[in-house]
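Throughout this chapter, every protein is written as a compact record of paired, labelled lines. An example of such a record is reproduced below:
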Amino acid sequence: MYDFEIERAAGEVVRRGAKRVFVQAPDGLKQFLAEFVSRLSQVCEVYVSINPCYGGCDLEDDRAAMIGADMVIHIGHKKFIEGAEKVYTVYLPAPHLADVRGLASLAASELKKRGFLRVGVLANLQHIEYVGEFVREMEAAGLVPVVDRQTGGLVLGCRTDGAKRIESEVDAFLFIGGGEFHPLGVAMDVEKEVFIADTYRNEVRGTAEIMKKTLSRRWWAIMEASKSKRFGVIMVTKPGQFSMRSAEKIAAELRAAGKEAHLLVGDDVSPERLAAFPFIESFIVTGCPRIATDTQQDPNRPVLNEAEAWKMLEIIKPDRK
């Protein structure tokens, strides 16, 4: 279960005098919204987006404005870019309500058995409040937990600075949360081993195997793309991801290397959308870097993120400065 801060949200609606409220939430949280929507419906008209929502960069303010919404409630994420919202927005982190004492003790024990001493402690937004509990259990087990002061250990799918800043101080990392999305993002950005303290499965596991497979797939994509002649460079129009400058710069570099580069624009980068361009051999996405790494790859048409595109350009144009 998650804490949607129902009364805080309802109070904010009343305080603002909002008549129409547009609600965004990740697909994984939508199934728990019944009580939240019912309560808000007592004080305003509620419109819930059926679209997926991948982060604080994934705003639907244009749709909110289209229905005349006075307020947006964005669930499960935090503000990504200051001033990006066109409609007044309230962010609700929706922490996962769990008893993590046993898991924290298990994690400390497992890490100690593996010979680690200094451990970087990380979490996603739904589990950041449990960092303190894990720190205490690690200290009790004789480990030295390290938490980035600027972020408090918070990592997002595309922002892992909280891990990179302390990498030189630790032997390994422990991520608190579920799934592989966030810890895999960390594992791709650091050289130390990353472990997951899964609050849903109540287990501790490593990421070495999935990381090995992911890196293998990414290098395959880079090498295959380097053989392509015709590229599609995609500008993602979501407010927190749009970068025309990056797309145009990459397109120019590709053309200088003797390649064709077509500039594409849109906010839905999915296999179905890419299939509409059969003449393009490889795609480069200049929006969220996780779109390329997490999108199901067409074995014949690689999809790269911006950083991978620059690596590929080093291969096809080694004299590039």
